[in-house]
Design goal:
Number of strands: 0
Strand content: under 5%
Number of helices: 9
Order of helices and strands: HHHHHHHHH
Length: 180
Amino acid sequence: MEASRSALADFVEENIGESHKLSLETLYGTFLTVIRNSYAGSNDRVLVPALEVFAFLLHFSLPDLMITGNFDWHSLFVVIPKIHFKSTNMSKLEAAIKIYSTLASIRSVRKEALAILTGMLLHPFPKVRIAAAEVLHTYFELDGDQERICDLLGSEDWTQPAKGLKEVANEIKSEVSQAY
């Protein structure tokens, strides 16, 4: 998997830019089409790897796209939430969290990404709660201005039942919505 990601990263670096016909917007749009079609056809065998690669591409190429691109970030919020809503597929849920973690750094969709991630703090699966809490903690730690949120996220045991986490999760949601 590492070798294929490295090869993809090299391809993107060599073939995307002003002097080439392929743009990041086109590449992202193509992946979004694959994701949409795989979801519509209930083909998790294609969908999950496509989500994983898309999450990697977002993370890898986001700085370039933020400078030069005009990708419609809101289109992701039409597709990605549908994919993981009521899903029991952990790979699908983890890939969605990776995508939201990158989207949280984009000003135009930050609020939506953070809202979904904070909502995942009450997910029925402990692994999802833990992953969402880790992503949020890292995001707010890097932000530097949200010590209260970091303290709340870091002081909780996200493996306990969701019912016991409702109060702290709601407090985090409130703090996040006030901050953004």
